Amino acid sequence: MFEQFFNSAVGFWLIVAIGLASTINGALYYTYFWQLKEYRWDRMKDFLSTKSGNKKIFTQSFVLKCIAVFSLIYAFIDPAIITRIRDEHIWLAMTVIAIIDCAGLGWRVLKKKFYRPVWTGKALTIVLWTIMLSILLGPVLTRHFDPVTWTLSAAIISPFVNTFLVALLDPFTQLSKGHKLAAANRKIAQMQELKVIGITGSYGKSSVKEFLSQMLEKKFNVLKTPGNTNTEIGVAEVVLRSLKPEHEVFIVEAGAYKIGEIKKIAEMVKPRVGIITAVKDAHLGLFGSLENIKTAKFELIEALPEFGVAIFNNDNAGSAELAAKAKNKVIRYGKSEGSDLKAEKLEANVDGVSFEVKGVKFHAPLPGLQNVSNILGAMAAALEFGMKLEELIDPIATLKLREHTLTIKKVSADLVLVDDTYNANPDGVIAGLDYLSLYKDWQKILVFPGMLELGEKTDDEHQRVAGRMVEVCDFVVLTSHDFDKPLMKAFEKKKYNSYSHYIENQTGIAELLKEKSAGKKTVILFVSRGSELVIKKLS
Q: What's the CATH class of domain 191-397?
């Protein structure tokens, strides 16, 4: 029956189309995840250590492809088995695998979760070469060169070709990166009057960057690194593409996953002011220890010139500890004693925060008291650039957070959505829960997938966050099984059972939330990525 269908014109071209679709899907799908992890093997390894990461990479079709590839390699080594494999309908097996792959693709398209990379030169190169090499190499393994074999065998090997290309291109990427870094260094060196501010920290650095930019723009021509651009090559590309002679201030966000990465960024941009917003165990799984994180963050301060200014969050123990080591002029900001720039008389409600600094009153339309700390960090740098406290009243009154960072969406008088999907770290999640608690007499719901890259602190931090969930939330939707053990332990300890599991089912989550919020004043907090469709369906 299969042979009759295979030999018909309709069957022939349908199988060719399925094979091509599966090959293209494999190239797009796996390039997306490599790009998401910045083509870094350490980040990919950490991703694969989670259940959700395993599920996304080691799909059903991928496992079947592994079996098929080993079979093809064995057949290639032992040519005599080719005939037997063909007689045993390997083409049927490959067709079934490609159909499973395409069915998964169709399902994701319907659910609007089609995975493809952001189109950059590197991503496009990897996708195109994955498709071409898969089509070229596939029939070599099977020793059959008809169109069906080309497309089906290409579909089978595309994930492996994709990974091979990521590894193969790495030396060339490093070479290109070296040229860009050298060019960025030369450009920065020529701009002697440019004032550079470097910002790093386990959390809060993006917010401080945004706030500082909005403050300084009142007096200076400012350039900031956009979005979450905080790697060495990302900063270099901003320098080459966007930095102009008319810019007076360049605000650089510096991130890292290991020791030495912030040092390289600092050596390139040569900051005069360095801000450390916090030192915590974010990305502990990649750094290995909290001491390594401290060493990495302090690289920014060590790169400052003698006349440079080092600014530290005095409310964070790790940051305060590093302040004691700095040899430059040090400014400590925060709500705690010993802060050079201290916030007092703090108040918060759902519409914003108010506080005083040295008798000057400020109000910011930002959600949560944690933003006061980020405002103070930006204020400390702005004051060093000659601005007065009174000059900052108006800029602070109009401050805006970046998108997906506690972004408030008032759907109706009875439904408020809080989009905090930009990232997820323990203190950030607790800050979001603290904001939820301000909605007195409202039903409070959290949509939570868990927190990645916490290493040995994973269980402890999830239990700490779960403790606050129990205090604040009327209901929690867990969207992953990755962190069930610590969460359930905390829930059971408090006898909390107001939660539900919906694994990667955004439509199901949306329906559940509609049901839960019907007829009640409800505020819903979405943490970390992956809730875009849910938010859209509820809006």
A: alpha beta
CATH topology of domain 407-538: Protein-Tyrosine Phosphatase; Chain A (3.90.190)
Instruction: Provide DSSP, 487-504.
Output: HHHHHHHTT---EEE--S
Q: In the beta sheet, which residues pair with residue 86?
A: none
Q: Do residues 201 and 282 lie in contact, with contact meaning Cβ atoms separated by under 8 Å?
A: no
Which residues on neighbouring strands pair with residue 354, listed in sequence order?
347, 363
Q: Where in the chain is the domain with CATH 3.90.190.20?
A: 407-538
Helical axes 426-436 vs 370-384, angle rounded to 10°: 110
Looking up tokens 């979405």, which residue turns up?
Answer: 526
pLDDT tens digit sequence for 426-483? 888 888 899 999 999 899 999 998 887 777 778 888 898 999 999 999 999 988 888 8
Q: How many CB atoms lie within 10 A of CB 253?
A: 26
Domain with CATH 3.40.1190.10 in the chain: 191-397
Encode pLDDT of 60-111 as tens digits: 778 777 777 766 666 666 655 555 555 445 666 777 777 777 777 777 767 6
Alpha helices (runs of H) in 111-222, residue ranges in sequence order: 121-142, 147-190, 205-216
- Is the pTM higher than 0.90? The answer reads no
Contacts of 189 (CB under 8 A, 6+ apart): none
Tell me which DSSP letter residue 77 carries: H
List the one residue out of 426, 418, 377, 406 whose CA is nearest residue 208.
377
CA atoms of 142 and 81, how far apart (whole Å): 10
